[in-house]
# Entry
Amino acid sequence: MKVSDFDFSLPQHLVAERPLQKRDRSRLLVLHRDGTIEHKRFTDLPSYLEAGDMLLLNNTKVFPARLKGVKENGDPMEILLIEKIGDAWEILSKGKYTGILKFSEDIEAEIYHGRRARFGASRNVMEIAGRLGTMPLPPYIKRQPDELDRETYQAVFASREGSIAAPTASLHFTEDLLDKIRRKGVIVRELTLHIGIGTFKPVRAENVEDHVMDSEYFELDKEIVNEVGAVKARGRRIFAVGTTTTRAIEGFVSGNCRATSTNGRLRGTTDLFIYPGYSFKAIDCLLTNFHLPRSTPLMLATALCSRENIQRAYKEAKEKQYRFLSYGDAMLIL
# Structure
């Protein structure tokens, strides 16, 4: 299977630079497995859910992971905090700078080859990021993040800090819409998968099967796994909100993870790569955004409903001027 099979042209004007003023007013393209397409609004989502279905959410919370500092020679430099490893942080930055990077009068870090940062042992780096950092908007959004992004680039139910990207299908929900879904008798549950650079890592291989996903951390209550089985046994459906939610639950149920159980809480990592040919073990339906060409989230969505259906849906979405990517519109695959 060629990566080029997942390529398409995406005009820059269709990439949403900012969210809509009201989260749930985005458009919703509904794609049925038989190829039928409906054009709705996100507020129509509850009409596709039935009592006894499960809606599974990723409650990861994005932290302001972009920090701007000044090098020893006075030049500006920006880093993106990725993950704490031992007493240092893995970072992304331009170049291979080694030296001191100063963020404020009393806060600095030692940078190693532009890939690792070591703050003082007594420093709470998450607190520093919360005070001095900005939200890590993806590079296809061609503007600098602002204070408003701290609210809008975050799901209303986000609660477990640790992600460097939002599970963007979650951004459309409001508390009122979730309440409406619950009142229908839908089971709403949460898990956590902290999104790292692996989700956005370019697929550089020619063949899809040769790409290797980076591991990402997840947590979920063991009872959720039992509930998923019970819902499916009753003939009801599991709706996953986003590709990260899908990877977390499928990673565990398929055994493609490294996890431990403590007091009924499962914690571990998964590097599960879902692409066409994968047999889904947990989810039945997927709520997702419109993704980048040649990307692993696009491959995951395609695995659920066929390449022909996805290509047709994306072609129609472009023709009808849907808004793409993180702050864009949504797709429901039934």
Q: What stands out?
A: The chain has a mean pLDDT of 95.
